[in-house]
Amino acid sequence: MLLLIIGERRTFWMVRGLIYLMLASVISDALGLRLLGLVLEKLILGAAVAIAVIFQSEFRRFLELLGKGQVWELFQKSSPTPKTDNVIDELVDAVKDLSQNRTGALMVLETSGNLDTKVFVNPGVTLNGQVSKELIQTIFQTKTLLHDGAVFIRGDRVVAAGVILPLSERSTSRQLGTRHRAAMGITERIDNCICIVVSEETGSISLASGGNLDRPLTSSKLKELLEAKFSPSGEGEVVAPSWGRLGRTIGLKGRLILEKFSRSPSATPKDRK
Ligand SMILES: Nc1ncnc2c1ncn2[C@@H]1O[C@H](COP(=O)(O)OP(=O)(O)OP(=O)(O)O)[C@@H](O)[C@H]1O
């Protein structure tokens, strides 16, 4: 049941690893292999402590909801962060011009809830400005200091610019460089965001979601997709979304801990073109 609820592959592997450890411990007990049993017991204990650390905030939220008698909230569908037509129009107009002028751009759009910005390799520079075509176009001009990296958009605000995102490790077409891999990387780790990419080389527009790139898109197709995503009845998460998110959170946090120990320089953007 738990494995069905946890949709994320990495989390699934983590849970499977723990189950294997438990099984091995039971088998070693049955075979009377006391030393091995002792080692496995310690390993399971370590894993349980690690999971408690990884889960910290989720446990707190669970206990809070339990205390308030609102546990059912865990099963409720999260509604998309509302975006007015005006915000979508400003975004699409900016993307259209950037594409026509072959100005590279990368935008992370929060779709619901609160995106965990700890996943950003570098949080960039806080702006907190109203989304407008002019602001977005200005940020991505290659002469500005903030053009390198991504902008992070929450609701109708450009929260930050110059954000460095984790790269996807999946192999991609040779045409796709780090900008596109960053869009795939953030959307494969975080499910409540999508990414718009404009290629500097070809001007093509892409939309990344769940680690996949939809490309090339026309600006009208992009508008259609954004409207569908941000409409109140838009694609929400399905069955037991909060549990799914919980599973992905474990995967993400586990991964963040691992990445802290093995952060590679490949996650930084290449030098200014
Ligand atoms: N990890 C990252 N996070 C955010 N932005 C990044 C990251 N890596 C690269 N970028 C942005 O992408 C730019 C480099 O793009 P690159 O040419 O490697 O990618 P690309 O996918 O081929 O895109 P394009 O088609 O625009 O050339 C950098 O200058 C930087 O602005």
Automatic annotation (TrEMBL):
Keywords: ATP-binding, Cell membrane, Membrane, Nucleotide-binding, Nucleotidyltransferase, Transferase, Transmembrane, Transmembrane helix. One of its GO terms (molecular function) is ATP binding. It is found in: Cell membrane. It catalyses: 2 ATP = 3',3'-c-di-AMP + 2 diphosphate. It is an enzyme of class 2 (transferase). It is a single-pass membrane protein. Residues 56-219 form the DAC domain. It holds the Pfam family DAC. InterPro entries: C-di-AMP_synthase, CdaA, DisA, DNA_integrity_DisA_N_sf, DNA_integrity_scan_DisA_N. SUPFAM superfamilies: YojJ-like (SSF143597). Its main location: membrane. GO terms for cellular component: plasma membrane. Its EC number is 2.7.7.85. Catalyzes the condensation of 2 ATP molecules into cyclic di-AMP (c-di-AMP), a second messenger used to regulate differing processes in different bacteria. HAMAP family: DacA (MF_01499). Probably a homodimer. Belongs to the adenylate cyclase family. DacA/CdaA subfamily. This is Diadenylate cyclase. The gene is dacA.
